[in-house]
Amino acid sequence: MWIAWLYLIFGMGVLYFGAESLVRGAGGIAQNFNIRPALIGLTLVAFGTSVPELTVTAIASAKGEGAIALGNIVGSNIANIGLVVGIAALIRPLRVERMLIKREVPISVFAIVIFYLMSIDGTLGRVDGAILVLCMVVFSIYIVRKGIKEKGEREAGGLPSRHGLGVCIVLVFLGIVGVVAGGHVFLKSAVSIARHFGINEFFIGITMVALGTSLPELATSSIAAFRKQDDMCVANVVGSNIINIFCGIGIASLIAPISVDPSLLKNEFLFLLGFGMALLPLLKTGLGISRLEGAMCLLAYAAFIYFSYIT
Length: 311
Hints:
Blueprint: H1 2-32, H2 37-62, H3 66-91, E1 94-95, H4 98-119, E2 123-124, H5 126-150, H6 165-197, H7 201-213, H8 215-226, H9 230-255, E3 258-259, H10 262-266, H11 268-284, E4 288-289, H12 291-310
Antiparallel strand pairs: 1-4, 2-3
């Protein structure tokens, strides 16, 4: 069993460093095209940090581990707000642009609502997956058009890149290889550990796997907070949560229909919706999140973990 734990740690490490390479490369490419910080966070950085979730979810779905796939996305999205935003706000109070609050945060809440409505019948089928992927396409077109319109209005100041375009492309490629390999190893070991101890696989997916795949968001947002890139920090979380649902669950459902446990709709989904909607009043208060509010996010996340464990 200790070998499975070693593989779990190894897979988590590969996921993290692969995503870190992907984020640095994507950020460098974005800066070469002078894209605004919030847009970098919503697009390339969000996609980069979401690759572990997308990879683990797709692999889990292909292997018939629907509970792991679903738990990973739900748990990751909750961790992104409760854990990632909470820690980043403790590092320093966060301030974000008004447009992010007016447009992208409501879109993330809409994604949760449509995710919930599709799950009510107990199954996320291929039609549901196609609709979610279509939503991802529409969201991507919206962001691209917004980027073209706003290009050049301000300097891009997200994750700084010290490399040329060619090196950044190589970093993106290496990052993709890393997260795919790490996702496979991580998932295999997590399922093995869950079965050995007789632990509910959904709980493993919503906690251990979700935490592991949220490490890139945690690292990126923490770095952004240290560097006073608040827009990048929050946009990364918002964009990642949107991508996780539209793209992650969408692709997983297209690969194979996913059964939804009725208890999920009564428990974890309510936490997910609560965390998602909490961003609106938190951000509207002074257009940011204070250290106290960050601490509240962490306490709420701890309560979620405890509730998931006892139920």
